[in-house]
Amino acid sequence: MSDTDLTRLTAARTAAVIAAGEASALDVTEAHLKRIRAVDGDVHAFLHVDADGARDAARRLDARRSAGEEMGPLAGVPIALKDLIATEGVPTTCGSRMLEGWLPPYDATVTRRLREAGLVILGKTNMDEFAMGSSTEHSAYGPTHNPWDLERIPGGSGGGSAAAVASFETPLAVGTDTGGSIRQPAAVTGTVGVKPTYGGVSRYGLVALASSLDQAGPCARTVLDAAMLHAVMAGHDPLDSTSIDAPVPAVVEAARAADVRGMRVGVVKQFSGEGYQSGVEQRFREAVSLLEELGATVVEVDCPAFDYAMPAYYLILPSECSSNLARFDGMRYGLRVGHDAAASAEEVMASTRDAGFGPEAKRRIMLGTYALSSGYYDAYYGQAQKVRTLIVRDFQAAFEQVDVLVSPTTPTTAFRLGERLEDPLQMYLADLCTIPSNLAGNASMSVPVGLAPEDGLPVGLQVIAPPTADERLYRVGAALEAALGDRWGHLLIDEAPELSLNTTEAAL
Asked: What is the reported pTM?
């Protein structure tokens, strides 16, 4: 098979090709490294490519397979990791100058499980600094570009992972989702992104933004690929006190079943109307109608507390961020500025944090510190937590009526680079539909459902399931994916450096 053919395969098909001996793990790795060299100068999905490490891992896998060792279902498949996931001996910067050049001395649990399953880690992907952002423009190392239109954002904070998958630089990637940072990039890049149930995937070794909200999850080009990666990543971890000690939901079986007959689907009333792009609503409504055709029952569901999710989130997240990022003080590791003999510890800390953090990180740290301060805690952070409880109750009431909820993943398609940088509120609105799931800990997925007629850019549909019922996401997502068929398909990006996109009529 040619290098181009190898990079166009799904992860499931890639694994099958390697298992059948039609290509080696090293062949597949080299094909993707070649693709990265060809296009990442334009996309900037990667912050670090570990080419030698990937080749060594692929050679070891090929040797083990030749020796007759039984391999996992994704053995030999390349993968990229968001750059806040600790990877022993490989730079992990969180998109910030604060950790420039830091080499973790250990692997995150997610990283270890991927290695044990035989996936080949290609490198680390770009992100908004410490996962604070909705466009990957807040990376200290420059923005990532959307492969559909290089002048547009790829979503955030995990835009690098989504863009790497969308541009065929890797068949799989891992992201983290604190308020939509897997699902929103998936929506605007035409890929599949999943936020598992909170606690379903270990957070050990993930650099924390907001500990009660963060969750790692899969990024892929198909629902089955996402399910296979989910199954590898998930499971109880005693190193994470929030890890769920329960069997991993049967996500792969659900993805293969792709059957929504008899399911009750709730359309969230609050996620439509003013502020939603017409093409996004059109594709969403078409997808909902398709679910009805496939045998699901569709009803509208009212979740009134969702209207307050965003203000509550932007008090809870900055508060936890302020606490978690206090460890980056220039005293123990990472950047240190102003450490001459005459400088006090306080001066070193202040100089380091001023130089190391970007404007969005500083904005959220200050908001959170204020919300937690004496005299304001109850009025801000305390009230936000009460709203969070109301949102959880709305979800509980909704799931007494339906099996899953659906909405647009994001109100608009990808906006232009720079368009919202000077207006933080407009930037935050990109996560309007995704935030409630993080506040409640539900499982959620974004699956592509077509292109918006007015701009030809991808639209995502969000599926939300109750906690620990992640398999429902994959039933719905796979059914939609299969039914849309030729109307969607996979991205067909040319090898040309300008990444011109082949948007055929079939894709519409």
From this structure: 0.95
